């Protein structure tokens, strides 16, 4: 094989790899999830939540987003809804898309703060999005309710999280929305039944053998997917569920490898 043929082959292979990585970054992979618990109120059996996090720079498409979704009861945004340099009109468009689906609840992520937290909050407020900034709201059905809490994102790594752990009663099923799962570090209990987080992008670029090379040590353990944690300190059988999403957008480069973009529809099921 001549040098020119080798170079042409390598270039074609490289172009194919880049195309694949772009496709993983731009996809609309829906993950259907079910959470089963005896603590879920009977009237919330079948309650469906669209969870999407780390949108960053991506514009949302009504058609593509809803193509695999029937109906949901609420939308949960896990932070990094935008980032610095993204036009606020894009953020406004994305929020309008989501607000047409169902009531929207959100927490901010670190990139939302870098983009200008006051401006981001203004767009959310004008779009009808409820921002859960160390705040608990109660979703009601018939005479029953569940608690939904959102954790405030610190301004930087130098600033600790507040001591907020939600205002749910002991007998209430409690969902906690937090952008960065590092909020869990050092905690012996979560105080929540279902925790939803993002931030990690699942590593975004996951290499064969080496894995997600860009993740810090904590995130090697809490990278993406489902985990079981203690809701109360000293539990022998952990009862809190944690989902860390790979996220919908990308950070730094618009590419993904072995880690496709995703969003979730989570259905609550009352354990008989």
From TrEMBL:
Protein's UniProt keywords contain Hydrolase: yes
GO terms under cellular component: membrane
Keywords recorded for this protein, A-Z: Hydrolase, Metal-binding
Domain Calcineurin-like phosphoesterase, residue spans: 48-202
GO biological process, one term: lipid A biosynthetic process
Pfam families: Metallophos (PF00149)
Gene Ontology terms, MF aspect: metal ion binding; UDP-2,3-diacylglucosamine hydrolase activity
Keyword Kinase: no
Family matches, as PANTHER family: PHOSPHODIESTERASE YAEI, TRANSMEMBRANE PROTEIN WITH METALLOPHOSPHOESTERASE DOMAIN-RELATED
Annotated protein name in UniProt: Metallophosphoesterase
Organism per entry: Paenibacillus lautus (Bacillus lautus)
Lineage: Bacteria, Bacillati, Bacillota, Bacilli, Bacillales
């Amino acid at each position: 094989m001549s040098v020119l043929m080798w170079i042409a082959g390598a270039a074609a292979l490289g172009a194919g790899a880049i195309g694949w990585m772009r496709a993983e970054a731009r996809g609309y992979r829906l993950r259907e999830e079910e959470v089963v618990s005896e603590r879920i109120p009977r009237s919330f059996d079948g309650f469906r939540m669209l969870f999407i996090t780390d949108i960053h720079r991506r514009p949302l498409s009504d058609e593509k987003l809803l193509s695999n979704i029937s109906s949901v009861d609420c939308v949960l945004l896990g932070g990094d809804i935008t980032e610095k340099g993204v036009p606020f009109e894009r953020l406004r468009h994305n929020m309008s898309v989501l607000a047409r689906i169902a009531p929207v609840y959100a927490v901010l992520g670190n990139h939302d703060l870098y983009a200008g937290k006051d401006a981001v909050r203004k767009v959310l407020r004008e779009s009808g999005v409820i921002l859960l900034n160390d705040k608990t709201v109660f979703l009601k059905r018939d005479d029953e309710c569940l608690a939904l809490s959102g954790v405030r994102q610190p301004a930087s790594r130098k600033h600790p999280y507040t001591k907020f752990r939600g205002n749910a009663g002991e007998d209430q099923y409690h969902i906690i929305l937090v952008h960065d799962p590092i909020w869990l570090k050092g905690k012996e209990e979560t105080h929540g039944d279902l925790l939803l987080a993002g931030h990690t992008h699942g590593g975004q670029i996951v290499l064969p053998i080496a894995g997600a090379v860009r993740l810090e040590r904590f995130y090697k353990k809490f990278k993406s997917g489902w985990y079981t944690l203690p809701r109360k300190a000293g539990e022998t059988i952990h009862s809190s569920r944690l989902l860390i999403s790979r996220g919908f957008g990308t950070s730094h480069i618009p590419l993904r490898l072995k880690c496709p973009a995703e969003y979730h529809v989570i259905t609550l099921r009352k354990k008989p």
